[in-house]
Amino acid sequence: MTKNKITIQDVAARAGTSPSTVSRVLTGSAPVSEGLRQSVERAIAELGYRPSLVARSLKTQTTYTVGLLVNDITNPFFSALARGVEEEANGQGYSLILCNTNEDPERELKYLQILRDKQVDGIIFGPTGRNDEFIRSLAGRIPLVQIDRQMPGLDAPAVLVDNEKAAYQATRLLVERGHERIAMLGWGMDITTSTEREAGYERALREAGIALDTRLLARPSQFSHSTLVRAAEELLAQQPRPTAIFAANNRFGIATLAAIRRFNLTVPDDVALVVFDDIDAFSLMSPSITAVAQPALEMGRVAMDLMLRLIRTADEAVPPVTLLPTELIVRESV
């Protein structure tokens, strides 16, 4: 004879409480005393109860899923960011639908439409800067949280770092080490991370009385490794050659190292290097690479926390921008 399915009423009877209290523990929809919470969780474990997600969705008009659009899942920064979102989501009973846009606006639009149609409870994303109209149409219907970058004028909270300040500090370090011909490998995209990091680079040069040489500012619009290496090689081919390079993210930094080696140059004797966005490999290289460290894991957790606040209390005031600190880690490459 097949055992009947365990119900929320069974859990309530075992825990010595009401089904509504069990529901509050499962959904987090209202406060429950710690003693009751422990009793309910113990009963759930003893009975092996598994709530029906479909039933929960029909009753609460929520799907307990959140969409996350990352811009490049192969980049360790975005992988860590996604892990932070996932850990916070799982801890609060939510599932994550992960989408990799690969910095492609068409893929971004496709995934946004899919997530809308799946009726996810919210979307966390870093905009590519090309689907503003559609994103604004979503903003009034579904909670949105921006991460790493933001869309100007969008009424949705954002979790960021101070890109301009961190890029300024990175470039200023190179100036303080005596460099004047400082190149930058950045993006050929209209996104806030690009414009802010470039602004920080330019401010450091301007304050040092160094004229901006546009030939030393590379902005590739394609981001394959070979394309980035070619862009870095074009910088190194300038005469006179730059004595230092500021790479605007870790993939750009790796491509710059490849170009430096192809020119049979050495770091830092021939070319100094600072990279925005630290990765584990930079500390293991010889020479080790100076980099701006971003709190990617914490950015993900904070973004999901903001999302849950928006989902659970639609009219709750959340900060429009949450800035997390960066750290310039000085190593042997400068």
What does this structure look like?
46% of the residues lie in helices and 15% in strands. It is built from 13 helices and twelve strands. The protein has helices spanning 8-15, 19-27, 34-47, 53-60, 76-91, 105-117, 132-139, 163-176, 192-207, 225-236, 250-262, 280-284, 296-312; strands spanning 65-70, 95-100, 122-125, 144-147, 158-161, 182-185, 217-218, 244-247, 272-276, 290-293, 321-324, 327-329. It has a six-stranded parallel sheet, sandwiched between helices. A six-stranded mixed sheet has the order 7-6-8-9-10-12, with helices on both faces. Strand 1, helix 5 and strand 2 (95-100) form a beta-alpha-beta unit. The longest helix has 17 residues, at 296-312.
- Give the DSSP E fraction (strand runs of 2 or more residues): 5-15%
Strands, total number = 12
Helix proportion range: 40-55%
Low-pLDDT stretches:
none
What would you call the shape?
A: elongated
Count of alpha and pi helical runs: 13
Q: What is the oligomeric state here? A: single chain
Report the mean per-residue pLDDT as an integer. Answer: 92
* Helix and strand sequence: HHHHEHEHEHEEHEHEHEHEHEHEE
Largest sheet features: 6 strands, parallel
Instruction: Report the radius of gyration as a whole number of Å.
Output: 24 Å
What spatial order of strands do you see in the largest sheet? 2-1-3-4-5-11
How widely separated are the two ends?
74 Å
